[in-house]
Amino acid sequence: MISATDLKLTFGKGTPLENPALRGMSLTVNQGEFVTVIGSNGAGKSTFLNALAGEVMVDSGKIVVDNQDVTRLPTHKRANRVARVFQDPLAGTCENLSIEENLALAIKRGQRRGLTSAVKKQYMKQFSDSLSSLNLGLENRLGDKMGLLSGGQRQAVSLLMASLTPSSILLLDEHTAALDPKTARFVLELTEHIIATQQLTALMVTHSMKQALEVGNRTVMLHQGQVVFDIAGKERDGLEVKDLLGLFEKQRGLQVDDDSLLLG
Amino acid sequence: MLSEIAFYGALETGLIYGLVAFGIYISFRVLDFPDLTVDGSFPLGAAVAAMLIMAGWNPWLATGMAIVAGMAAGAVTALLNVKLNILNLLASILTMIALYSVNLRIMGRPNVALLGEDTVLTPWYELGLEFHQVPVLLFVIVALVVLVLLWRFMKSETGLAMRATGANPRMARAQGIATGAMIVLGVALSNGLVGLAGALFAQSQGAADVTMGVGVIVIGLASLIGGEAVLTPSTVVRALFACIIGAIVYRLAIAFALNADALGLQAQDLNLITAVLVTLAIVLPGVRTKLTHRFSRKQA
Ligand SMILES: Nc1ncnc2c1ncn2[C@@H]1O[C@H](COP(=O)(O)OP(=O)(O)OP(=O)(O)O)[C@@H](O)[C@H]1O
Ligand SMILES: [Mg+2]
């Protein structure tokens, strides 16, 4: 379980560019939930995920993961509980390292690293089994440099890496946005498959309202650094994009058009 | 042609600069941390080893302390960067400048001679080899031992974490790697190797001098870049061998250049030649890709 309470964060405090990105954001995600997150550009989605991961420190509020207060912990000290896939396919892996070396980095996520050989024989079966589940033939290319792979392949490997060891929450920030439609669909299906089979708890940011409703079992919308609505279960089933827009307008008491809010 | 003595002399210094190039490989290539501390940590290693040997220490222990001193210097640079957020290049310049004073303090004067002292080389002279071959033999062994240790380290869990820190720090953090600690460890290791090089240099030359560090960074870079040009560094082992080969090739090239009377070069021209060579080595690959680029575009 992960819970964020009243998170506040202002970028560039005391400068002319002062920008309140989180303005009292609260959200609790329970074990096994797959939450999709939507919101307009600049709503604070990435900032929220970065705050959960430890990449940015909140000014106030509290973040608890599995009953541990992690609010002041840096990224690397949360990594045993928080797994991530970035939007940029190049960001989640090291291109100069081989596929097996990248996987070896990930299998030790959040654990002590010693002086024994990083790529161990006993990992090999797990590496090639999980790679072959991608059906990309990567299980035969373990020694290849990551940089030789396409963006979609790299993103698929990033997903594998994030799920190689257990985590309390998996953070996905528009991780299919940089891919072509076909590859994006493949990576999304892979995401659903991994989350379902490993019963992961996940938070996925998407710019597609349609996708937000089709995937996962709960949807939250952020606006100006706050949660404006949060739907799950019956209420969410059968909901369509236009209902979502209606919901948003009702909540905010303002008129918005599709485009200004979301694309796709 | 080079005399035999000049040839072995070039090999000897080349092997020592190979150790410097290892250090520069770690900072510049593995960590992507441009570190100029080496101009200070090289004479630091020399000063520490020389003073301890004169105080009657076992030369290998003295050399070990030179490594420790170099590591401490590197750690200072890295901490200035990681903890105080000083730009890496500037942090290393600060340490380098400070080390000039430190080195003078350690030696108590600008230079010391190791006349008649036992050095790490002393027992090797009893093997019956030719006088000028002895240092080469010992330094080949040292360079190879260091190479194997570094190679093992780079393949270890911690070494891999260090490589990830330099290549993609955001990813490294997300994998739970304390990137700040990795930078401190890496820059310390790098300068420890340079301290070792300084200690060996002092012992083979029979003296330590505060100014002996001037330009070490550029010579090390020349060795690294030259080696990479000769031996494409696609793997860690190849990159490490490239350091040694680059350093030896560089020293041989310098020896030939100084030896060729027709060129009219003198020892004091060394730094200028080196700077020109490094500039060429940095610029040439770019020029080459640009040319091939233009060529292939014309074809398309
Ligand atoms: N490092 C930063 N420094 C200053 N301002 C920032 C920083 N990161 C984000 N912001 C600002 O904070 C606000 C929230 O940004 P954020 O990236 O969280 O939005 P988002 O919901 O992810 O938007 P998008 O859909 O465009 O990805 C924006 O106004 C943005 O300009
Ligand atoms: Mg974003």
UniProtKB/TrEMBL annotation, chain A:
It comes from the Bacteria. InterPro entries: AAA+_ATPase (IPR003593), ABC_transporter-like_ATP-bd (IPR003439), ABC_transporter-like_CS (IPR017871), ABC_transporter_ATP-bind (IPR050166), P-loop_NTPase (IPR027417). GO terms for cellular component: plasma membrane. Residues 2-249 form the ABC transporter domain. Its main location: membrane. It is a peripheral membrane protein. GO terms for molecular function: ATP binding; ATP hydrolysis activity. It is found in: Cell membrane. The keyword Metal-binding does not apply. Keywords: ATP-binding, Cell membrane, Membrane, Nucleotide-binding, Transport. Belongs to the ABC transporter superfamily. This is Putative ABC transport system ATP-binding protein. It comes from Marinobacter persicus.
TrEMBL record, chain B:
It comes from the Bacteria. This is Putative ABC transport system permease protein. Its main location: membrane. It comes from Marinobacter persicus. The chain crosses the membrane at residues 6-28, 63-82, 89-108, 134-153, 174-201, 207-227, 239-258, 270-287. Signal peptide: none annotated. GO terms for cellular component: plasma membrane. Keywords: Cell membrane, Membrane, Transmembrane, Transmembrane helix. InterPro entries: ABC_transp_permease.
